[in-house]
Amino acid sequence: MTTDYIDVLIVGAGLSGIGAACQLQARCPGTTYRVLEARERMGGTWDLFRYPGVRSDSDMHTLGYNFKPWTDGKAIADGPSILSYIREAAEEHGIEDRIRYRHKAVSASWDSARARWFVEIETPEGPKTIGCRWLHMCTGYYRYDRGYTPDFEGIDAFEGEIIHPQFWPEDYDYSGKKVVVIGSGATAITLVPAMTDKAASVTMLQRSPSYVVSLPARDRLANALRRFLPAKLAYGLTRWKNVIRQLYTYSLIRRFPGRTKARLKTLLREELGADFDLDTHFSPRYDPWDQRLCLVPDSDLFKALRGGGAHVVTDEIERFTANGIALVSGQTLDADLVVTATGLELVYGGGMTLHVDGRQVNINDEIVYRNAMLSGVPNLTNVFGYVNASWTLRADLTSEYMCKMIAHLDRGSYAEVRPVPSGAIDRQDYITFSSSYIQRSIDQFPKQGSEAPWLITQNYARDVTLMRFGKIDDPALAFKRAGTDAREQEPVPVGAAE
Fold this sequence. Notes:
Elements: E1 3-11, H1 15-27, E2 33-37, H2 45-48, H3 60-63, H4 79-92, E3 99-101, E4 104-111, E5 116-122, E6 128-137, E7 142-147, E8 161-163, E9 178-182, H5 186-195, E10 201-206, E11 212-215, H6 220-228, H7 231-255, H8 257-272, H9 278-281, E12 294-297, H10 300-307, E13 310-314, E14 317-320, E15 324-327, E16 332-334, E17 337-340, E18 344-346, E19 353-356, E20 359-360, E21 368-369, E22 373-374, E23 380-382, H11 391-412, E24 414-419, E25 428-429, H12 436-439, E26 447-448, H13 460-468, E27 477-481
Parallel strand pairs: 1-2, 1-6, 2-3, 4-19, 6-23, 8-17, 9-10, 9-17, 10-13, 11-12
Antiparallel strand pairs: 4-5, 5-6, 7-18, 14-15, 15-16, 19-20, 21-22, 24-27, 25-26
Helix pairs in contact: 1-4, 1-11, 5-10, 6-7, 11-13
């Protein structure tokens, strides 16, 4: 089996992977790289998800790349617009020729003697191996090949259709159908108002409520700034305005959960009227931001509920029947189509198996360094976005950090760098949300610490200071010189060859 050698291998050609390739070209000219994509097209989430109304749940001035202004009038954008934006970025930077489609990276082994990763890949032509100096994982956080559906009793007896939003059939016609959408998260809240255009009825069936809040789909200030300022400047100002607002709002909500609940209830009462049963359908048992706050652009869900095109039922499923769903309360929901917006199956690093000098890495035993690298694992970065803000804010920073680290290795003639914890570290779950889809999979993720640089801050402003402007030198990082066998060398003291 032949092995190709390159400097950097980027795994994933979605929003993060395309952004990483653009940054690598700009920041590390002359660096050879390739992008692997398991699917047949770029775009990741925004190509995979095709369900009605699919959209962002973050504003595009922060979900967009820091190097490519978002110029569309809508800040809360639909899926096709976001996919077009990703494709434009790839075309503008000449990324397409570097992508290898239907190339699924399944495992990677680090060889200290050669200071390289050797990545095993499944392709239509058979298995291949690529060797690289640096491995940059842009695989997202969930499995692309399956979603999560609970084991509903009697589901095989249902005579209608069942669709998971992750695998929405192309050109599927739901005209005149009685639709039940199971779920209360961002996907369900998007689907319900979008399907009222053609469905006979749409019911959102939720086991428990989520916090929801309405925001305008258009950012008036952003659109005004673009009329008077260069696009890049207007975009940057809007981006930081939204970052600061989000950080302030998140901090306020976490500090005053009781007041936040009362305020959200007041806003919902204004949206849905005095007679709507908010206590049953929109009063979660948890505090705001214990789980992600769901965005309703331009009040579309509330308009659908007020107008009667959509309904919400809060109950538990007892079993499926031939014609619908029987609930624990004794109520029955008739359905021709059931949409199981019941969540994702999460996975870290695309589920790749990692080995370092023959030792398999147990991801759950490791601890993250600046939420970019893994303890004891050399020359590898993994992109994982914020849970309380836009994914791309963190993805941009991680890719910048990867470029910064590669330049540092080159200047110091280093072969490798790996985070090495010293002393006892108080280990905590990687993600602290209480959401079921996270708790089901948390044992597949690494840990975080309680203090920097092992703490995941969920604070973009702080991370910019640490990763974009902070020094690479850190006692928690062990650098090794290039040599005949790097395994036999002692770690180079931080900053020794600067």
